[in-house]
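Attaching the record inline, Q. Sequence:
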Amino acid sequence: MQQNDVSGENSSFDYAAGRRAFLGAVGLGAASALALSGSSSSANAQAAAISPADVFNFALNFEYLGFRYYDIAFRGYPVLLLPGTTGVGSTSPGAVIRYLTFLGTGTSETPRGGHKVPFQDPLIRAVAEEFGADELAHVTFLRSILGDSAIAQTRIDFDQGFTAFGRFSGLVPPDGTFDAFANDDNFLIGAMILEDVCVTALKGAVPFIRNNEFFEGAAGLLATEAYQAGIIRTLMAQRGLFKQAQQVSDLRDYFDGPSDIDQGIGTAQQVNIVPADNNSIAFSRTPEQVRNIAYGTTNGQPGGFFPLGLNGVIR
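Structure, as predicted:
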């Protein structure tokens, strides 16, 4: 992985989003629980208790996050209401109280932070609109599968998530604020934080899928995520955001463990639009790695974009 200077700031944390943990989710079943809790005999017992609904709900947390980002960037406030997006809270102690306290009645809690992006490039504005529609379709799809067991949207905090990410990565000074909604460039950086990890997450789920119908759905999601991530990376390269992309990549590598499975977009002299291994095969991530990137942690403690943690059993 190419290493870029970060203007003297420490590039050590990442509040990236493993949005489409649907990957870690679709068809994973017990395998996802093992990835999250280890390989001991107790982990095997815990894995046996994980249901398909638990897996889909893990994914739904990140679909809410992605939809809210693009919807606010394109539309601003008030955000588009999601009919029927109340639901059950996590099964962990206190979760139902958290749901009743923060979700109110009838609709999901309004995310914290963000505003309409003053887009200057019509193409980037169109991308925000299209990706928002994609994410809304994913939310609707997952909720239609889950029915009454669908989780509600947990608290999302864009101000906290992006500012902490910006400070720890060196995108802004230690006391600065990173506003992903400020302009076209910042929007693309924010989108890379939330999008780029999804391809590796879906890729990691493929070997565990047993149901042919789920396999086809996962392959379709992987293709969609690859399209989206590739578009974001291409637009960033066109605008010369090589250093910022590397800072995002370095942070993700910090949180997903000792392996080096993340790549920036290269340099103006040699671009790297498609991050892959020596065989041009996309990398894989486990659900645990996806979750840690979303929380901005190495130990699974809630934070980043999810200050109260994820809803659902897999968290």
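The chain has one domain: 22-295. The radius of gyration is 18 Å.

More tomorrow.
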